[in-house]
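Here we describe the complex-level prediction in full. Unlike the single-chain runs in Section 2.1, the two entities below were treated as one system.
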Amino acid sequence: MSAIEVIKTRRSIRSFNNKAIEDDVIEEILDMARVSPSGGNRQRWKFIYIKDSNILRMVKGCCPGFYGDAGGAIIAGLENEADTLKTRSNSTIGLLDIGFATENILLAAHALGLGGCAIASFNSSCISKIIDSPENFIPVLVISIGYPDIQPTMPPKKKLSDIVYINSWGKKWRRLENRE
Amino acid sequence: MSAIEVIKTRRSIRSFNNKAIEDDVIEEILDMARVSPSGGNRQRWKFIYIKDSNILRMVKGCCPGFYGDAGGAIIAGLENEADTLKTRSNSTIGLLDIGFATENILLAAHALGLGGCAIASFNSSCISKIIDSPENFIPVLVISIGYPDIQPTMPPKKKLSDIVYINSWGKKWRRLENRE
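The structure predicted for the assembly as a whole is:
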């Protein structure tokens, strides 16, 4: 599949079969997070790959938004510098960086026949406790990952002409209105 | 190129040649933002494509981080509901959504022979004024886009074994330490 096809056919996967995730496959997927862009190339992210089935069960228990028996999960988060600990804020740039890396993970998974779902609905302190992470690590997303059971259909999406303006706010680009 | 190759070879482009961006090419790139995942499938994003060279010059003037004579730019931002206007906050999920969509834009651009750079360093009220956007629209990133003049080399990246832990914080995955 071309990259464009991979982007177009990626779906959030919430139902998995019981095929185990091979180590070399998840390694390749995680490496796509590594090469993501990040603000000022700071790369202040960490990815905790949950492979152990008992720990995975505990992680699921902290995530109301985690559906399906995924073979594994990746906890993606930001490691703040010690001196910014007091703010504990997820900076705008840090969150964007996690977004870039997570999209790469989801696309790479799909390209390699797997799938997953980025989950923001979880209890952060519960996750921190399970993985025993320090205070300056902020879990941002839990990404379920595994081999899809079924390929869902595309959820309803806005039309391109409704989300794109040209040159200024509210100005529709006529050529987009002729699209499906 | 496969999706994996596109992810691996994407670079932030800050030097462009003067080839104009074809409308059908940018339309395809913008469509990859449309099909990105978003929290709860809310899709509360807008993308303003700056094609007009005078407006593009003004946008550049608000962006100290905008390098190179890009053929165009995309302003990616969040449209808040009117009733959340008072917070004007960039919610975590909204920022992650812009991250997902922006990575898709950058990958699609690269797959189609173009390139760009996600720029967070800009004067937000200056951008809002130029595009005449309402108060409830928050510009999050300016994405330069065009045909690359030169393909930069990969900037220094951390080793995979330094950013990935297995099952719990600080636990290195031995197999990753044997990588380059």
